[in-house]
Write a structure and sequence with these properties.
- By secondary structure, this protein is mainly beta.
- The protein has one domain: Protein of unknown function DUF4465 (Jelly Rolls, Sandwich), CATH 2.60.120.
- Helices cover 3% and strands 35% of the residues.
- Strand 15 and strand 16 form a beta hairpin.
- The longest helix has 9 residues.
Length: 261
């Protein structure tokens, strides 16, 4: 599968106590803000350039000044973005509730008007689909292992409005039915062995005081997975049938952080 190599910003973290560690850990945060315009999902929020035969397929990208890079798998087939791909997007159309708006985040910052975490413009959107093409993944392209610290997560517009309102294919979520949409993040070592799994609810109607559909960026701690080479993303929904989930299988993430020690 083709890969997109993204540059990263490195921020030194000070060790606890009064003195600095001689070799402090460094936190690397993928903000996606430096991705070239021609690599962003376009030309509309459907992301026509994410599919085979498109004029602007992704190309490899790295920052020559950066010694550490991370690979994110690219759409590579007729329908592969929604079926196990990750795109970088700036779309935040919060009105259109269909697949033609699949690259939009369901969030708009009150100050900047942008959709990324903390008022930023750019974020990543993953399409899980039926996962027949393989799951959406984030991995270290050099086969190394490092500790992922956290990531910020929220819903796409397509998924959020479907859960809030329902459509011809998927139900409206309700507390009466105890509905839920779950993101499953699995860590893998370089040898392919599983290090652990973390569940995160993008929608939770299981109890009367649960949060419902997530409509803001929320931090997900990842350090419990330990040092890994890869994060693999899957999804499950209470609204599923013989062909899998009826709920649109997408989510957005931003400011993915890991430690370089």
């Amino acid at each position: 599968m083709k890969k997109v190599l993204l540059s990263v910003a490195t921020v030194a973290l000070l060790a606890s106590g009064c003195q600095k560690d001689e070799n402090p850990a460094k936190e690397v945060i993928l903000t996606f803000e430096d991705v070239p315009v021609d690599m962003l999902a376009g030309t509309t929020a459907y992301g026509e350039n994410l599919y085979s035969g498109a004029e602007h397929q992704y190309t490899r990208y790295t920052d020559a000044a950066t010694t550490l890079t991370t690979g994110i798998n690219e759409a590579d087939g007729t329908y592969d973005f929604w079926n196990g791909g990750v795109a970088i997007s700036q779309w935040n159309n919060m009105t259109d509730a269909d697949y033609l708006n699949q690259c939009s985040v369901y969030y708009r910052d009150k100050t900047s008007g942008f959709g990324g975490y903390d008022g930023s413009k750019t974020f990543a959107v993953a399409g899980i689909g039926t996962m027949t093409n393989g799951p959406a993944e984030v991995f270290f392209a050099d086969h190394s292992e490092r500790r992922f610290n956290y990531v910020w997560i929220t819903n796409t517009t397509y998924a959020a409005l479907t859960m809030l309102n329902g459509n011809d294919y998927a139900k409206q979520f309700s507390y009466d039915d105890g509905d839920w949409l779950k993101l499953i993040v699995t860590g893998y070592k370089a040898d392919g062995s599983k290090s652990g799994q973390i569940d995160f609810y993008l929608a939770d109607f299981r109890t009367t005081n649960a949060g419902g559909v997530l409509q803001e960026w929320k931090k997900l701690e990842l350090s419990a997975l330990g040092e890994v080479n890869k994060l693999s993303f899957g999804m499950e929904s209470s609204d599923s049938g013989d062909w899998g989930m009826n709920t649109p299988a997408y989510f957005c993430f931003d400011n993915l952080a890991f430690s370089e020690e």
